Amino acid sequence: xxxNQSFEINNMININKKNGESLxxxxxxxxxxxxxxxxILVVFLYIKMDSPAxxxxxxxxxxxxxxxxxxxxxxxYFDIDESNGDxxxxxxxxxxxxxxxxxxxxxxxxxxxxYSYSFFSKNAVSEVDSKGRVAILVR
Amino acid sequence: xxxxxxxxxxxxxxSFHPSLLLKSRKGDKVISVYWFFILFLVAAAIVYMVxxxxxxxxxxxxxxxxxxxxxxxxxxxxxxxxxxxxxTEEYRMNFEENCxxxxxxxxxxxxxxxxxxxIVSIYDxxxxxxxxxxxxxRFNWIDSCxxxxxxNPFCVxxxxxxxxxxxxxxxxDIFTAVRKTEKNVN
Lengths: 139, 186
Hints:
The complex is a heterodimer of chains A (139) and B (186).
Chain A: H1 2-49, H2 52-69, E1 75-79, H3 87-93, E2 98-101, E3 104-107, E4 115-118, E5 124-128, E6 133-138
Antiparallel strand pairs in A: 1-6, 2-3, 3-4, 5-6
Chain B: H1 6-16, H2 18-55, H3 61-76, E1 77-78, E2 81-82, H4 89-93, H5 95-98, E3 116-124, E4 130-135, E5 154-163, E6 169-178, H6 181-184
Antiparallel strand pairs in B: 1-2, 3-4, 3-6, 5-6
């Protein structure tokens, strides 16, 4: 009887151990899945917020409005943060970052891309110096 | 049977019974499904809001229309005195050129250099008689001004009170409109 009883208890302890291990594994998987989910969400938000396309549009419109607001003879300096674009491309092509043709300004921060916006002031010319700083002269 | 008294044995057996654990695990699984369903809903809402926010372009039409009105007013008057050249037909005919304005726009979206507009009306302040009026050439959406629909142009009206060298009073009414909705709203 005693050995039967002891066997029964041992058996129950073993079942509980197995169940406990299984519960622990499930909980770990659950927590890992939650973390993975949150990481994917944060990465998505980060990619969307830091997209070069967003900065191209922002810079193009800001520069167009600056030119429109400028008086003749004004010189506008504008620093472009290269981390807002494709840094590897921007490093060797910073001179192509801002172009003004007639009354159309184009900002390009990556190889395939670019955003253009027109302004209504005449005679604005731009130049990019060796430090990647944009100088726009409104005549 | 000999190890524990009957009542105590029953109690302990219940607390260790595997079927209870199974029940509790089923409940956990149901909760997990709901948990992931709620997470999915939250993620979908965040993704939707992000696309809503970053999918829309920056709307700069209001600033642009105000800047245009300011630039035109600078060409018409300075320090409360009217630019006497405005009173000549030749200056008004070539106003865009004389004021350094260029209303050409990008070719995209079927725009035909017709996205920016202005009209200037100069009144005699005392008699309210319209003395001169001139405008840019093309604009097909003038009737849409004032409507709050997003695809309509943004319009600004400014009025200036000015004097000429002879002490005559004028009221200058400047109306500007910027459309460019495809690049600012949609």
